[in-house]
Specification:
Radius of gyration: 18 Å
Strand order of the largest sheet: 3-2-1-4-5-6-7
Number of helices: 7
Number of strands: 7
CATH architecture: 3-Layer(aba) Sandwich
Helix content: 25-40%
CATH class: Alpha Beta
Length: about 260
């Protein structure tokens, strides 16, 4: 129960990596705010999952690229939970194009979601944490695309690299408020939902057989791999980790090369 009694807001958490983080955080005692830009049946599934651990769950439909939506989301979260201890920035939307074909609207769309939105959420969370005087943790999900160029990933890579730099500035500026800020950089993560029959495989299921050829760990990642690192950073285990980016990729960034690259 590393997060017992903590209040955590996780953006982009109705499925995928965000849901994996919500699952593990609730398992360790946190109440969870679930966010996404739209609703769906998977929202109810995620809420039920959090409640199955005896934790409180709240739903916050909001576009993180919109400051009005973000302000409303944080106001609603505080009304529901009373305070905030943890923010995990995970929501993202991407448009992949060759550098020569990137349009201004593509740039604005992705920067709004993958960089500006993280800033808006982080600032809201940090202001509330500072007001509370109890400290807090902010974790942003970056990517190995921040550390290495891939085809057609210019805007995405720039945004993910920007998150690492922003986390460093936040670590410096927020240190006096006992707020730690860090990033996690996932590699290949297969976030397709598991069926009930597959739940026992969580954390070990290798969806991509080709991964054994170019990832030293010889498997693709799953959301639980990222959730475990986020849990470390948001618990007392990560008290002295600040302004860092932890790569969670099975060793891929050390030199593995995907087919066709």
């Amino acid at each position: 129960m590393l997060l017992e009694g903590k209040k955590a807001l996780i953006t982009g958490s109705r499925r995928g990596i965000g849901r994996g983080i919500a699952d593990l955080f609730a398992m360790h005692g946190a109440d969870i705010g679930i966010n996404d830009v739209e609703s769906g049946k998977d929202v109810e599934q995620t809420i039920d999952m959090v409640k199955s651990y005896g934790r409180r769950a709240s739903w916050h439909e909001a576009d993180i690229a919109n400051s009005n939506d973000v302000n409303r989301m944080f106001n609603d979260f505080i009304k529901e939970h009373g305070s905030i201890d943890i923010l995990v920035n995970n929501a993202v939307a991407s448009r992949k194009n060759n550098f020569l074909d990137i349009k201004e609207e593509d740039w604005d769309f992705e920067v709004g979601n993958a960089l500006k939105g993280y800033f808006l959420c982080s600032q809201n969370a940090a202001r509330q944490m500072a007001k509370q005087g109890t400290g807090g943790r902010i974790v942003s999900i970056s990517s190995v695309h921040a550390l290495r160029a891939f085809p057609n990933d210019t805007v995405y890579g720039v945004c993910k690299a920007g998150l690492i730099r922003m986390a460093q500035s936040m670590a410096v500026d927020l240190a006096g408020h006992n707020i730690n800020s860090n990033c996690v950089a996932p590699g290949y993560i297969d976030s397709r939902p598991l069926t009930p029959e597959q739940e026992h495989l969580r954390g070990g299921l290798d969806y991509a057989q080709q991964a054994i050829d170019w990832i030293p760990a010889r498997r693709g990642g799953v959301p639980l791999d990222i959730a475990r690192t986020a849990l470390f950073l948001c618990s007392e285990l990560g008290d002295y980790v600040n302004g860092q980016c932890i790569t969670v990729d099975g060793g891929f960034i050390t030199g593995g090369t995907p087919p066709g690259s």
